[in-house]
Amino acid sequence: MALTGKKAPHFISGAVINGEEIVDNFSLDQYLGKKHVILFFYPKDFTFVCPTEIHAFQEKLAEFEKRNAVVIGCSTDTEETHLAWLTTPKENGGIEGVTYPIIADAAKTIAMNYGVLAGEYFFNNDTRQWSFNGAPVAFRGTFLIDKEGIVRHESINDLPLGRNIDEYLRLLDAQLHVEQYGEVCPANWEEGEAAMKATNEGVTEYFSRN
């Protein structure tokens, strides 16, 4: 079920913050009314495509922060595994140097509620046991959540397909433009280009902010 236009699912979970500190009660509530959030899910620690994305978000972190947004990662690994990976040097396959929060979703409930778990639990009535079908990790889901906690964009990549981080900066720019000017952003819009306003008569006009 799509989450766009709805309240982002609430959670409280363990996480690693600042690349070195484990906290037990991390949630998005701390950003309500203050920050936009880019929440991204990745499949697993100590893998191959995942660290390229995690480092790419870190490289662009200052750009997100300039736009008053925070970046938050999440996978179904534990806090301890996150911390071990965060203290492993990049040249050894680690993500040392990453400073934004990384959430632990070992119970897989966050991924399930956001619709990105790459499998599902089911109860076998014959054996009277729970089983899991699929991969018990998260797809590469990405969510743009506004200051009011509303999901404004969601996208889900299959496990082998890495993300383009610049696209999330573009989407964030578009959301900020919509909030500030009440205009809508056409295809391929980028910051500084003309946006559009729908009039009461249904006629669309273009407005340039240059």
Automatic annotation (TrEMBL):
SUPFAM superfamilies: Thioredoxin-like
GO terms of molecular function: peroxidase activity
Family annotation (InterPro entries): AhpC/TSA, Peroxiredoxin, Peroxiredoxin_AhpC-typ, Peroxiredoxin_C, Thioredoxin-like_sf, Thioredoxin_domain
Family in the record: Belongs to the peroxiredoxin family. AhpC/Prx1 subfamily.
PANTHER family xref list: THIOREDOXIN PEROXIDASE, THIOREDOXIN-DEPENDENT PEROXIDE REDUCTASE, MITOCHONDRIAL
One Pfam entry name: AhpC-TSA
Keywords carried by this UniProt record: Oxidoreductase, Peroxidase
Protein name: Thioredoxin peroxidase
Domain Thioredoxin: 2-177
Organism: Niabella yanshanensis
Keyword Ion transport: no
Function: Thiol-specific peroxidase that catalyzes the reduction of hydrogen peroxide and organic hydroperoxides to water and alcohols, respectively. Plays a role in cell protection against oxidative stress by detoxifying peroxides.
CDD domains documented for this protein: PRX_Typ2cys
Keyword Oxidoreductase attributed: yes
